[in-house]
Amino acid sequence: MRYAFTALAAASVLASPAQASLAERIDGIFASSTGWFVNLIFANLPGTGVPWIVGWLVIGAVVFTLYFGFIQFRAFGHALQIVRGKYSDPKDAGEVSPFQALTAALSGTVGLGNIAGVAVAVSIGGAGATFWMILAGLLGMASKFTECTLGVKYRNEYPDGTVSGGPMYYIKKGFAERGLPLGGFMAVMFSIFCVLGSLGGGNMFQANQAASQVSSVLGVPTWITGLVLSGIVFLVIVGGIKSIARVTEKVVPFMGGGYFIVGMAILILNWDMIGWAFSEIIRGAFTDSGIVGGMVGAIIQGFRRAAFSNEAGIGSAAIAHSAVRTKEPISEGFVSLLEPFIDTVIICTMTALVIIITQQLLIDANTGMYILGENGRIANVEGVGAGVPLTSAAFGSAFGWAPYALSLAVFLFAFSTMITWSYYGVKAWTYMFGEGEAKELVFKLIFCFFIFVGAVTSLDAVIDFSDAALFSMAIFNIIALYFLMPIVKRELNSYLLRLKSGQIKAFK
Amino acid sequence: MPETYLIAFDGSDASERALTFGAERARASGARLLLAHVLEWSPYSFLSAEEVAERHKRRTEEVGRAETVILDPVRKKLAGQGLSVETVVRYGHVAEVLCDLATEYGATQIIVGRTGEKGLQARLFGSVAGTLAQAAPVPCTIVP
Question: pLDDT digits over A152-161, tens only?
């Protein structure tokens, strides 16, 4: 997603030259000291154009899918029943329900990636990227299942009733249990990258995109948006003004639902084109449709979009899910496997279909190939940048008011993603420095500061670095998952046996 | 076996009236009293990640407060008057939980106070008393 927004970020030019030069200086310092790391993480596999980190996530997803015997399909129906509350003991009412766990974790992943990232993917990879994105989303469900089950199994429970969990806890405790070395080291490495990822992908990137969208549609200067966002987040996470978070947590799912409904409406209005859109997707997925890199280009874009959007294998959702009090770690894993499905297979696909079906991407009528712009991206009807503007144009072509609604959605999605990621950051921070209000406060203040920084600057290097940090979480997380997956398998077999025998019973 | 009167009690004026009414009848008939405090809760509401983590702690606090502040004082008072009183705290949709409790505890009667909600809110969401009148598994007395 980061490459895509370079253009957008550049558009959010700073107010004064003095500021600009300061931002440039910071940018420069950051770039020279972290560039090697970014290049390492996003380096391509030898002889291909595939960043190895994408391959790492996809291979992990394939391994977990095979190891657990396509659990994402076998348990899909059961997962829906759990979320509907069929297996919830009425006596546990008042505790977090499976539905609430699912939506809380989803609020961290459903966001700009679904709106902006997908637009980038199809504008580089064409319609065919959609096919590979869906496939990667389906595979990612197995990664999510594995990490969230472990998150619950190895969490810390405290006497006051609160819990802390996530990859850092299962890496340390799980490795110790299996007698494996380096658990403590890997847990700390994961935590470091989680803190950096929280400040970057979960914060500055979101703030930057929200500020530039608000600025381009409504003309509000980025520093105002930055200050407002930073202030609201401060009130919520430091001031404990839970009502704001509560309002957003209520509004955001409706925005997600509204986004889906408006998308569906556009598809229905163009129902005669749906067959064509799917044939375009299949054609682009398996043949050269004129994009840079041909069919392989489509695969890369689709895989990358899915991996970056649903965060499967990154370990973030395991932090949210581990906080749920449940007797069965596996049932939490089942609930979590719905997230990549909702995030990628449903919402991302919706964005892609709307862009394809409203024919935003220009196709040469004679050859049937995409027409490429100068930057290697497919040219679009409106001539707008990839990312939010392209999605905005696609929705706007059907409904004139859609771009404004989309601006609001972008702002709210960014906000809710920040709130969720601030929690992930706090958990990783307290894992390293110890639990305590004062220690949490230090991190939260840093977090709020970076919102402003992210909104007002076009610090490409900072965003590159933080994205790299986000995906570095996956390096340590997936290594750990390989070593710990036999434990998940044992839990899974026991659960399925007890479900069959009726020991785990339905209440409704 | 003595009868059991299930009384919805949340400390409000309306619930005080229901309690007074129920206690009088219980003294006359020798029935047991079951005081139920139901905290409105939907498993389909939305929580933030932090709220998810704190939920168990909060729930423990809420139940504790309901017991010590709302239910314990009246239980002691009524027990002092020689009545047999039991209390219960539950979460959920108030009317639905009261119906479930009536079945679970074999209550012979449900007694609730009427808050007298009028207007749009009552029309849209219905009232506890109204829902019970429609759905209660046992006779239901609504105390004005």
Answer: 999 988 888 7
